[in-house]
Specification:
Aspartate Aminotransferase, domain 1; 38% helix; 264 residues; single chain; Aspartate Aminotransferase, domain 2
């Protein structure tokens, strides 16, 4: 059996597929860093059983628009299930985005998974949920391990669902933090990928691992990798932290990063 997935993307689905004996076919994102749905369609073979999508994506903070997703879902051969991870759906402001839960309501072979780890702030609880037809939920339940979700996690999730103001406040703070980062990158002459999540990927113009090490020495933890040697992913935080991050980045690369320092 085969699973088709974009790359780079969140690794967990591909990891689980490989652990269970399936092969994973990776399709690179397009020139705009968006999941290449046409490429994924072309990668489908008679052995393809599942397509894994993360929308918005991670570590690339882009999303697939509703019109493109509609065309993709409706063009798939029968016998293929699409799993869509919508961990970052709260942060989206793109008008042409639509949750894939609508496909579940229409009876299409789509499973949507979400987490309480992002906007709800329950990363330590390790809890989430899925939306799918009974055909798939029954199969999932039959293979579920005992004790996967704790009573504490369930109670926290129920409380989080009732606290809608917290989500509103979190998204508002995230928008403000992203604006600080984006303005800072622009002022420093750095390119970045417009974000529909709670993190931004930006181009350092130099060795990202070196920049990350220098940032760590100043108290900032960022992520590098994914076959993008000049890019860094930075998550949003408190507004004062974002301002301090931009100052630190300018000190490392030079105030005008068009004349960047080079790693020793």
């Amino acid at each position: 059996d085969e699973v088709v997935s974009a790359t780079p993307t969140y690794f967990q689905m591909a990891y689980e597929a490989t652990a269970n004996g399936a092969s994973v076919i990776y399709v690179p994102v397009d020139e705009n860093y968006v999941i290449d749905l046409d490429g994924i369609s072309q990668a489908i073979t008679p052995d393809t059983k599942l397509i894994s999508l993360v929308n918005p994506n991670n570590p690339l903070p882009t999303c697939v628009h509703k019109t493109n997703m509609d065309a993709f879902i409706n063009s798939l051969p029968s016998g293929i299930v699409v799993v869509v991870d919508e961990a970052y759906h709260h942060y989206i402001h793109t008008p042409d985005y639509g949750s894939c839960i609508r496909y579940v309501a229409e009876g299409l072979p789509v499973i949507v998974v979400r987490t309480f780890s992002k906007a709800y702030g329950l990363a330590g609880a390790r809890i989430g949920y899925s939306a799918a037809s009974s055909q798939y939920t029954n199969q999932i339940a039959s293979s579920q391990m005992f004790g996967m979700v704790s009573n504490l996690g369930q109670a926290a999730a129920q409380a989080a669902l009732n606290d809608t103001q917290h989500v509103i406040d979190t998204v508002t703070l995230n928008d403000q933090a992203k604006e600080i980062l984006q303005d800072g990158f622009t002022n420093l002459g750095l390119d970045y990928i417009p974000s529909e999540t709670n993190f931004i990927m930006f181009d350092t113009g130099t060795n990202a691992s070196w920049v990350a090490s220098e940032l760590a020495s100043k108290g900032f933890q960022v992520r590098t990798g994914w076959g993008m040697p000049q890019h860094i992913r930075v998550s949003t935080g408190l507004l004062e932290e974002m301002n301090e991050f931009i100052v630190a980045l300018g000190e490392i690369l030079g105030q005008d990063c068009r004349e960047r320092k080079t790693p020793p």
